[in-house]
UniProtKB/TrEMBL annotation:
It comes from Amycolatopsis tucumanensis. It comes from the Bacteria. CDD domains: cupin_NimR-like_N (cd06124). Residues 155-252 form the HTH araC/xylS-type domain. The keyword Transport does not apply. This is Helix-turn-helix transcriptional regulator. The keyword Transcription applies. Keywords: DNA-binding, Transcription, Transcription regulation. Signal peptide: none annotated. SUPFAM superfamilies: Homeodomain-like, RmlC-like cupins.
Length: 258
């Protein structure tokens, strides 16, 4: 998934608990006049906006501010819990979509708020929501936003990479397939996405690796499946971008699922 498709729809409300989403299920582009937190209690949720794509396995919570158009795709059978955030509280959170590392306290308050059916304006519900917002304010923000292009020439290339992140094709080869020169594409990667072709493809692969590892795949299998020449180069790239080794990330994700 590379960006919201179709005409975005204004949704006035969301149920707190969606029906479980099958692997690969899409939620079409839409927006709200309130903020929304999105947590996958199982599986993983990919959220795409007009400016980038964020990956959130079960150890992460996604924040979408009011009026930001977004669409989604699930990875694995995904149990999504949605939390509406009123405008006055939304002002305390980032003005752009973000993904946060979810602390144990945040997850427990979040799930209690959605599963125990207190009235939305009850003192207990207010307190639990305040805990969630306070924990988000101090949580580490996930840096792995994958920027998405608007230029059609560049989008033709990134669409090919989204479809096959492991592709070893060079930028010249991808340009030949899409009808653009390597020089033009290289310039567009820098001017529109503020990174090189190699950096963008590495970031895409790391995002997919989060999904693979979160689903229980081994580090070696993930490295091979996503196009790294060897596991050590994958471990180095993953650690540089995520801030922890893929093995540690996999162990943490598994503990969260259990």
């Amino acid at each position: 998934m590379s960006e919201p498709v179709g005409e975005p729809v204004f949704w006035t409300d969301d149920s707190a608990v969606c029906e479980p989403l099958a692997h690969g299920a899409d939620v079409s582009a839409h927006f709200h006049d309130f903020g929304q937190l999105r947590y996958a209690a199982s599986g993983a949720l990919v959220t795409t906006t007009q400016v980038g794509t964020w990956v959130a396995p079960a150890s992460r919570i996604t924040w979408v501010p009011p009026f930001h158009v977004h669409s989604s795709r699930s990875y694995g059978e995904t149990d999504v819990r949605l939390l509406r955030v009123p405008a006055e509280l939304a002002e305390r959170l980032p003005t752009e979509p973000s993904v946060f590392v979810a602390s144990a306290l945040m997850r427990e308050a979040y799930l209690a708020l959605l599963s125990e059916h207190d009235p939305a304006d009850s003192p207990r519900a207010d307190l639990l929501l305040e805990v969630v917002i306070a924990e988000l304010a101090r949580a580490r923000r996930e840096p792995l936003r994958l920027p998405e292009p608007s230029d059609t020439r560049l989008k033709a290339v990134t669409d090919l990479l989204h479809a096959d992140p492991a592709s070893p094709a060079t930028l010249a080869e991808l340009g030949h397939r899409t009808g653009s020169s390597e020089r033009t594409l290289s310039r567009l990667f820098g001017s529109e996405l503020s990174m090189s072709f190699r950096q963008w493809r590495t970031l895409l692969r790391i995002q997919r690796a989060l999904l693979e590892l979160g689903g229980g795949a081994s580090v070696t299998d993930t490295a091979i499946r996503l196009g790294w020449a060897n596991p050590s180069s994958f471990i180095e790239a993953f650690t540089d971008l995520v801030g922890q080794t893929p093995g540690h990330y996999r162990t943490t994700a598994r503990a969260t699922r259990e």
